[in-house]
Write a structure and sequence with these properties.
The complex is a heterodimer of chains A (675) and B (347).
Chain A: E1 2-6, H1 7-10, E2 14-16, H2 20-30, E3 33-39, E4 45-50, H3 61-71, E5 79-81, E6 92-94, E7 101-104, E8 111-118, H4 127-135, H5 143-155, E9 160-163, E10 171-176, E11 182-184, E12 190-192, E13 198-202, E14 219-223, E15 227-228, E16 241-247, H6 250-260, H7 265-270, H8 279-294, E17 297-298, E18 301-305, E19 313-318, H9 319-326, H10 332-341, E20 345-349, E21 352-357, H11 368-379, H12 401-414, E22 418-419, E23 425-426, E24 448-449, H13 454-462, E25 471-481, E26 489-499, H14 509-528, E27 534-537, E28 543-553, E29 556-564, E30 569-574, H15 575-580, E31 597-604, H16 611-621, E32 625-634, E33 637-644, H17 653-671
Parallel strand pairs in A: 6-18, 7-10, 22-25
Antiparallel strand pairs in A: 1-4, 2-5, 3-4, 8-16, 8-17, 8-18, 9-16, 10-13, 11-12, 13-14, 14-15, 19-21, 20-21, 23-24, 25-26, 26-30, 27-28, 28-29, 29-30, 31-33, 32-33
Helix pairs in contact in A: 3-10, 5-8, 9-11, 16-17
Chain B: H1 2-18, H2 22-33, H3 38-44, H4 51-83, H5 103-116, E1 121-123, E2 128-130, H6 131-134, E3 166-168, H7 174-182, E4 187-196, E5 207-218, H8 222-237, E6 243-250, E7 253-262, E8 271-272, E9 276-277, E10 285-294, H9 296-301, E11 309-317, H10 318-326, H11 341-344
Parallel strand pairs in B: 1-4
Antiparallel strand pairs in B: 2-3, 4-5, 5-11, 6-7, 7-10, 8-9, 10-11
Helix pairs in contact in B: 1-4, 5-10
The chains are: A alpha+beta (675), B alpha+beta (347).
Chain lengths: 675, 347
C-alpha cells in the first residue's frame, strides 16, 4: 500500500537533523521504500512511501518515525523518538457504559471502544490541520470528520464518528450481515450485501422510510471497517458525537471491501490486521482533539470491550543461526541495539537471544527468520559482500527439450517464419468444446485454455490486413488437453500458418505452386531435424477435402499440414513426438567414382493421378535410379529429371535405355501414362 | 634547333588527340620517348649546341617533355575509363528475407544462458497447477489475498483431495516446490514459464513469463543471493551496473527483498547532467523483482531439513527484465503480445 507523509508531520514524532532526501534514501535501503519526495508550496516535503502488506504498523506517521529511529543512526545520523506523553488519563475504560448499549461479536471485532462527546459545534478545522490533511490528499470536511482522518494518518488506526442522536435508543448490535440486507453508505452508494459482512445494526430501526430493512434486527447504520451508514452520519446540525475506535477481523474486511469494490483507506488498513493495543491511544487522542476543536465535552467512561488482550510474544534465536543466514558475523552488541531501537526487548541467554515482540509487530514476527530479517535489514543489505556459491554442483540433467525447441525456432526463422506468442486463454469460438475453462475469467475472450494453436494463428493473419505479400507466422506453446481428475496434459506444440502472396483462393497452377512452396518449408524443417517420415493423405477437420497430409514417423503421427478451409496453409507438430521420432541414420557415403547419366522425361499424366505415386513408382523400378525430381509442369505434362548411377561403372546408353523402357512400361500399365 | 622541338610538340599533340585506343597511344609514347624516339633523338642534340643557346634549349626540352607526358597519361586514363563496362554500386540493396524470433524467446535464451554458466539447470513444471504447489506449500495462509478470486485464475475442474483447487500458476515459484520434492540438495534450478494473473492494464498482462531461480545447499546465505544477482546484473545488463536489495515481503521467503538495478540512463545518479531528474528511474534505481531466503516452512513442506540446508530464490518477469535491457520504451506492455507485425518487427 502507498501512503503519503509530510516531513513536518513526521517531525512531530521524530527528532533528527536528517534532511528529507537523507531520510528517503536511508529508509528505502533498510525499511519502507520512499519512492518520491515532493516539495510543496509552504516549503514542506511530502514523502510517498510504499508499505509492504506485512508492515501495516508502519503505515502512519508514528510507524515511519519508529522506523527512522532504528535506521538513521546506522548512517551516522542521530534520531530519537519524541514520546508524546499522554496527559494523565482522566478516562476510565469500562466494559459497560450508561449512554450506549452494545452487543459485540468479539470474533468479528477483537476490540471495541466508543465514547460519547456532547455539545459539539460543527465547524471548519484550524488551518494547520487542514493543511496537513491536504498534503496527504484528504479533503477537509469539518472538525469532527477531519479528526478521524487525522488520527488515521498519524497513528494508522481508523476512527469513525456517528451522530449519536440518529442512533435510536442508543442501542447497537455488531454482527455479520445477512444475505440481501441493504446499506446506504456515506458516499450515497447503496449496497445489497452477500451476507457475512461485519455491520452494525440499530435494533429499533431508524426512521420508517420505505427502503428500511425491518427484519426484527434493525436497520444497518455502519458497514464496519469500510464506511459508515448515511443514516447515522455526522452533519452540520450534529450536537452529540459517538466516537468509535475498533479493530476488525481482517479477512472479513477484505472480502467485503473487494466484493463491493469499496477500497476505502480504512478498509485497506483493517484488511491487513491492526494492533489492538493501538486502539486506546487512538481514542484518547481523538477525544482530546475533538474536545479542543469542537468545544464538546466527553463522557469520562469509555466503553472498551476487549476480552482477550495482547499477551507478549517471545521469539528466540541463536547468534550462530543469525550469522549463518546473513553470511557474516555481526557483533552481538550491535544486534541488540538494532532490535532495541525497533522496539523489541532483548535478553541474551548463553549464545541465544531471547526477544520480546512489541504488540504492533506481533502479526509479522513469528519465527527466528523474522528476527534475522530485522537484524539484516538494519545492518544494511548494501553492506553485505557479493559471493557466488561454492560447494558441489547439482547432478547434471539431460534435458534436450529446450535445445530442441530452440533449434526448431532457429530453423523456422531461417525459413522466413515470424514467431508469435499468443495468449493461452481464448474465447469459446477459438477452441474445442472440451477445453478447460476458468471459474473466474476476466472476460469471454479469455475464458478457456486452448487445445490447439490453429485459431490463434488464423486470427494473427486476420490481424495483419496491411501485409499484402506472403506471410508466415509460427508459434511454439503448450496446449492444454483435459484429463479427468488430473492436471491437464501440457502438450508443447509447434504450429505455423502461411498466407500466400496472391489472393488466397486462386485456383489451378498458382495454387499448386504456392502449395509446393509451403510444403517445401515443412519438408525442409523435417529434413533439418533429420527425421525419417512418411506422409499420408488423410482428411481432418478444418482442412479442405483432400488437401491435408498426416506426417508419420514409424506408426506415430507426429504432425499434419495442408490447406485450411479458410484459405491458409497450416502445419502443426507435437514437439515430444518430433523429438522421439526415428532419425535417419547418418552414415558417410563415399563420393561415387563414376558419373551419373541424367535425362529429362516429359510424361503425359491422366487426370487425378497423384504425381507423388508416379515418382515413387519410377524410383522403385530399378535401384540404379538414383534421383527423380519434378522440374516442370504444363497442363498435364510433367517433366521429371532422372539420374541413373551405378557404383561400379559408368552406365552405357544401352543400360540406361533398358531401365527407361521398364519405367515407361510400368508407368503405362500402372497409371496409363504416355510420353 | 628550338623550332624542331616546338614542331615535334605540336605534331605530337595533334596525334594524341586523334588516338582511339590504348595501343595506339603506347605506340606514340614509344615513338617519342623510346630509345630511338624523336624526343630522345632531339634531346641528345644538346651536346652539339654552343653554350649560349644551350640554356634556352634545355628549358624548352623540359617544357616539351612535361607537356607531352601529362597529355599521354591523361589520354590513357580517359581511354581506360571508356573501356570499363558501366556499373552502379549505389543501387539499393535487395535484402534476404529472414523470419524473426519473438522478443520473449530472445529474452529467455539470454537469461537461461547467464544462469546455466554458473551451474543452474533449466527445468520445466506445470503451468496449470494445484493450489498446494502455487500457494499452500509456499506458506500462503488459507485466506491470503493472492488465493482469492480477484488475483488468481481458477480452473473449472474438480478439486484434488490432496492438493486443492486447480489454477493457473500466478508465479513460477510453484516450480520451487516441484523441484525440491523431486531433487535432493544441492539444487540450482532456473524455471522459466508462462504465468497468469487476473489483471490487465498498461503495465500488467494476464499472461506473462517469469524466471525463477532456486538454490538450496549447506551454508547458503544472503551474501550468495547478492552475489548471484549481482553476477546476473553485470552479465545481462553490463559490467558497470550494480544492484541493491531493499527489504520487502513475500510469503515464501524470509528475509525477503526487492531487487533494484542501477539506472543506465543516469548511471545511478537519479539525475542527468545539469540536474534534470532522470525520467526512467526512481532516484537512480530501477526495480527488477523480488528475491529472498527460502522460508523454513517451505523447506519443511518439501522435506528439506532447514537445520542443515538453507536456500535462496528469486522470481522476476521476463518481459520487464528484457525491456529494461533493450531500452525500448513501450508505452503499454500488452503491445509485446500484439499480433500486429508492424509492432512485432520493432521489438
Amino acid at each position: 500500500m502507498d501512503i503519503k507523509i509530510p516531513n513536518s508531520w513526521l517531525k512531530k514524532y521524530l527528532d533528527t537533523k536528517a534532511s528529507p532526501s537523507e531520510i528517503a534514501k536511508y529508509l528505502s535501503l533498510c525499511g519502507p521504500s520512499i519512492e518520491k519526495v515532493e516539495k510543496v508550496k509552504d516549503g514542506d516535503s511530502v514523502y510517498s512511501i510504499e508499505v509492504t502488506t506485512n508492515r501495516v504498523d508502519s503505515a502512519s506517521v508514528l510507524g515511519i518515525a519508529r522506523e527512522a529511529v532504528a535506521i538513521l543512526p546506522r548512517f551516522g545520523i542521530s534520531a530519537t523518538f519524541k514520546n508524546k506523553k499522554l496527559k494523565k488519563e482522566r478516562f476510565k475504560f469500562v466494559k459497560k457504559v450508561k449512554y450506549l448499549e452494545v452487543v459485540v461479536d468479539s470474533k468479528l471485532c477483537p476490540r471495541f471502544t466508543a465514547v460519547l462527546i456532547k455539545d459539539v459545534k460543527i465547524k471548519d478545522s484550524p488551518q494547520d490541520i487542514k493543511s496537513l490533511l491536504e498534503k496527504v490528499d484528504v479533503r477537509p470536511i469539518n472538525n469532527i470528520v477531519d479528526v478521524s482522518n487525522f488520527i488515521m494518518h498519524e497513528l494508522g488506526q481508523p476512527v469513525h464518528t456517528f451522530d449519536f442522536d440518529k442512533i435510536v435508543g442508543g442501542k447497537m448490535i455488531l454482527r455479520e450481515s445477512k444475505k440481501s440486507e441493504v446499506i446506504k453508505t456515506l458516499d450515497e452508494k447503496e449496497f445489497k450485501l452477500d451476507g457475512g459482512d461485519i455491520v452494525i445494526a440499530n435494533p429499533k430501526g431508524f426512521g420508517m422510510s420505505s427502503d428500511a430493512i425491518e427484519d426484527g434486527e434493525g436497520k444497518l447504520i455502519d458497514l464496519c471497517g469500510i464506511m459508515g451508514g448515511q443514516n447515522s452520519a455526522v452533519d452540520n446540525n450534529t450536537k452529540n458525537v459517538l466516537l468509535f475506535v475498533q479493530n476488525y477481523d481482517k479477512h472479513k474486511i477484505r472480502k467485503t471491501s473487494m466484493n463491493l469494490g469499496q477500497r476505502t483507506e480504512a478498509a485497506v488498513l483493517f484488511e491487513k490486521g491492526l494492533d489492538s493495543e493501538n486502539v486506546k491511544p487512538a481514542i484518547i487522542l481523538a477525544v482530546s482533539m475533538i474536545e479542543k476543536l469542537s468545544g464538546g465535552k466527553s463522557e469520562e467512561e469509555i466503553l472498551d470491550i476487549y476480552p482477550s488482550p495482547y499477551k507478549i510474544k517471545n521469539v528466540s534465536v541463536a547468534k550462530e543461526e543469525i550469522d549463518k543466514i546473513i553470511g557474516i558475523d555481526i557483533p552481538e552488541k550491535e544486534i541488540k541495539s538494532y532490535l532495541t531501537n525497533l522496539g523489541f526487548e532483548v535478553k541474551t541467554n548463553k549464545k541465544t537471544l531471547e526477544i520480546k515482540v512489541p504488540s504492533y509487530r506481533a502479526d509479522d514476527i513469528n519465527i527466528k527468520e523474522d528476527i534475522i530479517e530485522e537484524i539484516a535489514r538494519i545492518y544494511g543489505y548494501h553492506n553485505l559482500p557479493c559471493l557466488l556459491m561454492d560447494g558441489s554442483l547439482p547432478k547434471p540433467k539431460v534435458n534436450n527439450e529446450f535445445k530442441f525447441e530452440n533449434n526448431l525456432k532457429v530453423i523456422l526463422r531461417a525459413l522466413g517464419g515470424t514467431e508469435i506468442y499468443n495468449s493461452s486463454l481464448v474465447s469459446k469460438e477459438m477452441t474445442s468444446d472440451n477445453a478447460l475453462g476458468l471459474k473466474n475469467p476476466l472476460g469471454t475472450d479469455t475464458e478457456l485454455l486452448r487445445t490447439s494453436l490453429r485459431e490463434s494463428l488464423i486470427q494473427n493473419i486476420k490481424d495483419n490486413p496491411q501485409e499484402k505479400g506472403r506471410l508466415h507466422i509460427f508459434e511454439i506453446a503448450n496446449v492444454y488437453i483435459p484429463i479427468k481428475n488430473s492436471l491437464p496434459q501440457e502438450k508443447l506444440t509447434l504450429a505455423g500458418i502461411i498466407k500466400n502472396g496472391n489472393s488466397s483462393l486462386v485456383s489451378g497452377s498458382a495454387q499448386i505452386l504456392d502449395f509446393r512452396k509451403n510444403k517445401g518449408i515443412v519438408e525442409k524443417l523435417l529434413e533439418e531435424l533429420n527425421i525419417s517420415y512418411i506422409e499420408k493423405i488423410e482428411e481432418g477437420g478444418k482442412y479442405l477435402p483432400n488437401q491435408r497430409l498426416s506426417v508419420y514417423s514409424g506408426n506415430t503421427e507426429v504432425g499434419e499440414y495442408g490447406n485450411l478451409e479458410v484459405g491458409y496453409f497450416y502445419y502443426t507438430f507435437d514437439l515430444q513426438k518430433l523429438m522421439d521420432a526415428k532419425k535417419i541414420s547418418r552414415k558417410y557415403k563415399s563420393i561415387p567414382k563414376f558419373p551419373p547419366q541424367v535425362e529429362d522425361l516429359t510424361l503425359i499424366i491422366p487426370e487425378k493421378t497423384y504425381i507423388g505415386d508416379v515418382i515413387d513408382s519410377i524410383k522403385s523400378v530399378n535401384q540404379l535410379v538414383n534421383k527423380v525430381e519434378l522440374t516442370d509442369t504444363y497442363k498435364n505434362n510433367y517433366t521429371v529429371n532422372i539420374e541413373y548411377q551405378s557404383p561400379d561403372h559408368t552406365l552405357t546408353d544401352k543400360e540406361v535405355e533398358s531401365i527407361r523402357v521398364k519405367i515407361l512400361s510400368s508407368l503405362k500399365s500402372k497409371f496409363g501414362i504416355t510420353v | 634547333m628550338n623550332e624542331d622541338l616546338i614542331n615535334l610538340k605540336n605534331q605530337a599533340i595533334a596525334r594524341i588527340a586523334d588516338v582511339k585506343n590504348v595501343n595506339e597511344l603506347e605506340q606514340i609514347r614509344i615513338d617519342l620517348f623510346g630509345r630511338n624516339g624523336k624526343f630522345t633523338f632531339l634531346s641528345k642534340n644538346i651536346s652539339k649546341i654552343d653554350s649560349e643557346a644551350r640554356k634556352q634549349y634545355g628549358i624548352t626540352l623540359n617544357e616539351v617533355k612535361n607537356t607531352l607526358e601529362i597529355l599521354v597519361t591523361e589520354k590513357k586514363n580517359e581511354l581506360n575509363n571508356n573501356a570499363r563496362e558501366w556499373f552502379d554500386p549505389t543501387m539499393p540493396a535487395k535484402k534476404v528475407k529472414l523470419g524473426k524470433l519473438h522478443m520473449v524467446t530472445n529474452a529467455i535464451n539470454e537469461i537461461a544462458e547467464v544462469f546455466e554458466k554458473i551451474g543452474f539447470t533449466r527445468v520445466k513444471y506445470p503451468e496449470v497447477e494445484y493450489d498446494y504447489f502455487a500457494f499452500g506449500a509456499l506458506n500462503f495462509p488459507d485466506n491470503h489475498p493472492a488465493r482469492d478470486d480477484w488475483e488468481t485464475f481458477f480452473v473449472n475442474a474438480p478439486d484434488s483431495k490432496k492438493y486443492g483447487p486447480m489454477l493457473l500458476t500466478p508465479h513460477t515459484s510453484s516450480g520451487q516446490i516441484r523441484e525440491m520434492l523431486k531433487e535432493k540438495p544441492p539444487i540450482r534450478m532456473i524455471n522459466i514459464a508462462k504465468c497468469y494473473r487476473r489483471q490487465s492494464d498498461v503495465s500488467h498482462l494476464i499472461m506473462f513469463h517469469q524466471f525463477e531461480g532456486l538454490v538450496v545447499d549447506k551454508n547458503i546465505s544472503i551474501t550468495h543471493l547478492r552475489g548471484t544477482i549481482d553476477h546476473f546484473a553485470k552479465t545481462f545488463f553490463g559490467p558497470e551496473r550494480t544492484i541493491r536489495l531493499r527489504p520487502y515481503h513475500f510469503q515464501f521467503t524470509e528475509p525477503s527483498f526487492e531487487v533494484d538495478i542501477s539506472c543506465n540512463v543516469c548511471n545511478g545518479k537519479g539525475h542527468i547532467s545539469s540536474g534534470v531528474t532522470c525520467k526512467l528511474c526512481k532516484k537512480g534505481w530501477l526495480e527488477i523483482g523480488g528475491a529472498g531466503m527460502v522460508h523454513p516452512h517451505v523447506l519443511k513442506e518439501c522435506g528439506v531439513d532447514s537445520k542443515i540446508y538453507t536456500g535462496f530464490a528469486f522470481g522476476w518477469g521476463v518481459e520487464r527484465t528484457y525491456m529494461m535491457k533493450s531500452g525500448l520504451s513501450v508505452p503499454d506492455i500488452r503491445l509485446l503480445y500484439s499480433s500486429d507485425l508492424r509492432v512485432l518487427s520493432q521489438l
